[in-house]
Amino acid sequence: MHGSIGKRSLRVVGNSKKKRKWYSLMDKLWDYQNLEQAFYDVKKNRGAHGVDKVSIKDYEIELEHNLRVLQESMRMKTYRAKPVRRVFIPKADGSKRPLGIPTVVDRIVQAATKRILEPIFEQKFLDCSFGFRPNRSAHMAIDKIRKDLGEGYTFVIDADIKTYFDTIPHDKLLELIKEEVVDGSVLALIVQFLRSGILENGVFYQNEKGSPQGGVISPLLANIYLHPLDEMMTERGHRITRFADDFVICCKSRKGAERVLRTVEKLLEEGLGLKIHPDKTKIVDNYEEPFIFLGYIFKKGYFH
User: What is the mean predicted confidence (pLDDT) over 139-159?
Assistant: First the structure.
């Protein structure tokens, strides 16, 4: 059985059930054209240097040579991801968000991996997910919520997952990736991205869980990990709108919203090893009070 994704022909192992397995992907990752395009993806997003202090401009001076060296290290399986450089970005509430900056080389490898894996997972992702996906935006997520509110789903679960990117369990994430990817070399690369460690003020920390914010592939991994939430809510007919780790669920009654929130808490905590933030998660009656999602204020009684 053979399948294709866009112009990339990939071999498929299939059975009568819905799960499909993809393999022989590693050669597509280190294909020179894929690495070159990955570099330009990284360049377009700019960003600072990593722990090796090599900038995008430095790397580009001998681009072809550098990419050929990288290609050979991937082909020979000698490539090793370096620790990410941790910096802290101020948040609106006065706290700071940790950001992990990989080296330019590691960003290229992550971008190359994302370019191959993203079309595979896009085939299974659902319409309720809008964050960091091709041809989807925050505006589209806001429009969907406005539509749900307009149809009478005005009791809103405004949810927050506590330190999501820092608490994703690696083993559970890899199990979800293995539902589609069985190429051991690709899986080993993803393990490197996840466990490369953190360098902060000259001190190295090993990370046993989490996917550093700032990694090129982190948003895709975040979407893979929360796909079971999308699936469960959609199968049950609930109006969920998710943008990476931010999501709201619109319900028709407070009791219904309370029931759905309990279901969500159980899936996240027992199934995925995540925690709902008790102080930042609430049920809002949009008839009576506003709520904010992705910086947009849904005023009270907006549709009435």
Answer: 96
